Amino acid sequence: xxRTLYVASTNPGKLRDFRLAAASHDLGILPLPGLRAIEPxxxxxxxxxxxxxxxxxxxxxxxxxxxxxxxxSGLEVDILDGAPGVRSARYxxxxxxxxxxxxxxxxxxxxxxxxxGVDDHQRSARYQCVLAVAQExxxxxxAQGTAEGRILAEPRGSGGFGYDPLFYLPALDRTMAxxxxxxRWTVSHRGKAFRALxxxxxTMIG
Length: 206
Known about the structure:
Layout: E1 3-7, H1 12-22, E2 27-31, H2 48-60, E3 67-77, H3 91-94, H4 103-114, E4 124-135, E5 138-151, E6 167-169, E7 174-175, H5 181-187, H6 189-205
Parallel strand pairs: 1-2, 1-3
Antiparallel strand pairs: 3-4, 4-5, 5-6, 6-7
């Protein structure tokens, strides 16, 4: 019988990516029921791993008997001392920066502002992702993935989400937003983390 992994996220990009990877393993991916009505945890851990585990254990208490997946991921820019880091989703909001309609657009514009005048060779960055699975408030396991790249001076591409239009992959000569879903899943931090987590999960459930 197929198992279902419930994801503590309503982000359509993340859900699409997870479903893409899990489809060939008879593993269903669904959003956690009633997630929007649940008061979120603080997410005040200083690391991606800490936040991912905190969210997974917290949300798993709302769905007894089922495994719940949560992630914490973000962008680290070397010249900004690793910022925005764990605050990637709230980078612009933390600074009170709001000139566009969406959080993604504001985050990208604020990042460009912060890197104004920085030479191309000093724009090294990486995406980090930690995925954690918990059941009934118990932390089961976690996995991490990283994608190395560089931040461009202007966005390119319309795919992906978040900082993808600015995140350039030298090996492909494309941004994360310029590649197709399958390629993105192969090279992305989230894809790498999920493949490692999937191996552990399949071993566990048989």
